UniProtKB/TrEMBL annotation:
Protein name (record): Acireductone dioxygenase
A cellular component term, taken from the record's GO annotations: plasma membrane
Residue positions binding Fe(2+): 89, 91, 95, 134
Gene3D superfamilies: Jelly Rolls (2.60.120.10)
GO molecular function: acireductone dioxygenase (Ni2+-requiring) activity; acireductone dioxygenase [iron(II)-requiring] activity; iron ion binding; nickel cation binding
Cited Pfam families: ARD (PF03079)
Keyword Manganese among record annotations: no
Length: 201
C-alpha cells in the first residue's frame, strides 16, 4: 500500500525518505483532497486482466501505453534524466504511472506549497492531475520499471517552474487555457497568464 508524508526541507540526497520530525503521514483520502492525486492497487502479475486497470483505461480513454525502466544500466544518459525528472514541473495532461518492479518517490505540492512525498512500489498506480507541480526520484534502491498510460499518442512535455511562479495560483489557468485553445502553444499560454497575474519570468 502506498505511503505519503510531508517532507522536510533537506534535499542533499533526494533518494532518502525525508520525513519531518516527528513524521507526518497523510491518509490517501487527505492526499486526494489536498492534491487531486489518485491511487489504485493493481495486480501486476496479470495487469491486462486486472478489472480495476481495465475500467480506468476505458473510462479515461487511455489508448496508448509504454514502459520505462530507470536504472544506471538501462536508462541512457542516466544522471541527466534523473536530474530532469527531479526538476519541479507540470504537464497539461494527467501523468499516469503503474509500478511493475522496483520503487521510487513522486513529490507533489499542496495548496500551501508544502512538498508531499508519495512512495510507490510494485503494484501501485497513481494518477497525478494536470496543472500540479511535481517531481520524481528513485529511492536508495536506484531501480524502477513503470508503465505509462496516455490518451492517444504520447506527448510528454514538462513545463518547469520558474522561481517567480513559486507563490502563484495561475498554474491551473495556464493548463486550462492550453487545453481549451489547442492551437495556442502552451508556452504562449504561460506567458499570457503570467502577464495576467503580474508575474515576471
Amino acid at each position: 500500500m502506498v505511503r505519503a508524508w510531508f517532507m522536510d526541507n533537506e534535499v542533499t540526497d533526494q533518494r532518502l525518505e525525508h520525513h519531518r520530525n516527528p513524521p507526518q503521514f497523510i491518509p490517501l483520502e487527505d492526499l486526494y483532497e489536498k492534491t487531486g492525486v489518485e491511487y489504485f492497487k493493481i495486480n501486476v502479475d496479470n495487469h491486462e486482466g486486472d478489472d480495476t486497470l481495465q475500467d480506468i483505461r476505458k473510462k479515461r480513454g487511455y489508448s496508448y501505453e509504454d514502459q520505462i525502466t530507470c536504472s544506471k544500466e538501462c536508462l541512457p544518459d542516466y544522471e541527466t534524466k534523473l536530474k530532469n525528472f527531479f526538476t519541479e514541473h507540470l504537464h497539461t495532461d494527467e501523468e499516469i504511472r503503474l509500478v511493475m518492479e522496483g520503487s521510487g518517490y513522486f513529490d507533489v505540492r499542496d495548496a500551501d506549497e508544502n512538498w508531499i512525498r508519495i512512495e510507490v512500489i510494485r503494484g501501485d498506480m497513481i494518477i497525478i492531475p494536470s496543472g500540479i507541480y511535481h517531481r520524481f526520484t528513485l529511492d536508495t534502491k536506484n531501480f524502477i520499471t513503470a508503465k505509462r498510460y496516455f490518451v492517444g499518442e504520447p506527448i510528454w512535455l514538462p513545463y518547469n517552474r520558474p522561481g517567480s511562479l513559486r507563490k502563484s495560483t495561475c498554474s491551473r489557468d495556464i493548463v486550462a487555457l492550453a487545453i481549451e485553445q489547442k492551437k495556442l502553444d502552451p508556452l504562449l499560454a504561460i506567458a499570457e497568464f503570467c502577464k495576467k497575474c503580474n508575474i515576471v519570468l
